[in-house]
Amino acid sequence: MNVTFYLNQNGRARHVCDAVVAGCRRHGVEVRVRSVTEYRRPEADVALFYGLWPPLKQLRQDYAAAGRKAVLIDLGYWGRIEGGKLAGFHRFSVNGLHATAYFQRVKHGPERFQRFGVELKPFSHRGEHILLCGMSEKAAWVYGLAPEQWERQAVEKLRLHMRVQRPIHYRPKQSWKHATHIPGTTWAPSDAPIQRALENCWAVVTHHGNSALDALGHGVPVFTTAGLASVLASADVAAIDAPRYPSEEQRNQLLYDAAWTQWKMSEIAAGEAWQYLLDEKLIEP
Predict the structure, then answer these.
(1) CATH 3.40.50.2000 residue ranges in the chain?
(2) Quick one: which of 212, 200, 202, 201 has its CA closest to 251?
């Protein structure tokens, strides 16, 4: 098997690359490390890379179009921080921006999810406000959007279709430092824990992101168009007065399965992430 890890221009996430190289060697697989500036066309059977800065976005699309495997690695859903740095869990997505297409192909037990200490709450079917969770400038670019374009369009549609007039709280993504006030919303500070914003919340509206999984775990229904939570969410905010309420069993299973798409550095270096990709038949040995 021919495997290449493409580092972005500034060599960011070298620690992730080193862990992947070590983990693959445990399976007898050597990984070639190249700068993405050297990329011209798909050459490996499997390409791994961190994030989606240009030209990694093109690389991912090229590999998928060529019928090869492109494995996107990015920050995880839970347990991101280790040693005060974003060096904790990282998620793996094969031939997609998210693992949505396959992550529930195998049903997993609760043990891996429970290690994150997330308190699961029942769905309340009540709430006074709508929480709009924004995305970063980079995430907007990945989806071909301008910063805050999707969020502003969502507010307009919510205002048009709400029969019960609920306040909309806009919580920008914490890493997006240039967020501005969106007319028709109340500012929800992103430096406060999201659990605080989820209290007494009718529904969470977001394009994609960790906030959707946080909401489901907190017992708040979700409107989203991408990401793992979309499996149990509504896509059209025009239905804001009638959110989708999955069963707690469905919700719990989704979170259990999501926990198996992310790995900490020591697990990656030990070959456990690669073993998962093999076991789930996402790559061929």
Answers:
(1) 129-245
(2) 212
Q: What is d(CA 83, CA 79) in angstroms, rounded to the nearest whole number?
A: 11
**Mean pLDDT rounded to a whole number for the chain:** 93
Using CA atoms, how far apart are residues 232 and 172, in angstroms rounded to an integer? 23
Q: How confident is the model at residue 174 (pLDDT cuts 50, 70, 90)?
A: confident
Cut 0.85: pTM above it: yes
Model pLDDT for residues 228-278, shown as the tens digit of each residue = 999 999 999 999 999 999 999 999 999 999 999 999 999 999 999 999 999
Q: What is the pLDDT of residues 81-103, one digit of tens each?
A: 876 666 789 999 999 999 999 99
CATH of region 3-108+262-279? 3.40.50
CATH class given for the domain over 129-245: alpha beta
3-state secondary structure the chain: CCEEEEECCCCCCHHHHHHHHHHHHCCCCCEEEEEHHHCCCCCCCEEEEECCCCCHHHHHHHHHHCCCEEEEEEECCCCCCECCECCCCEEEEECCCCCCCCCCCCCCCCHHHHCCCCCCCCCCCCCCEEEEECCCHHHHHHCCCCCCHHHHHHHHHHHHHCCCCCCEEEECCCCCCCCCCCCCCEECCCCCCHHHHHCCEEEEEECCCHHHHHHHHCCCCEECCCCHHHHHCECCHHHCCCCCCCCHHHHHHHHHHHHHHEECHHHHHCCHHHHHHHHCCCCCC
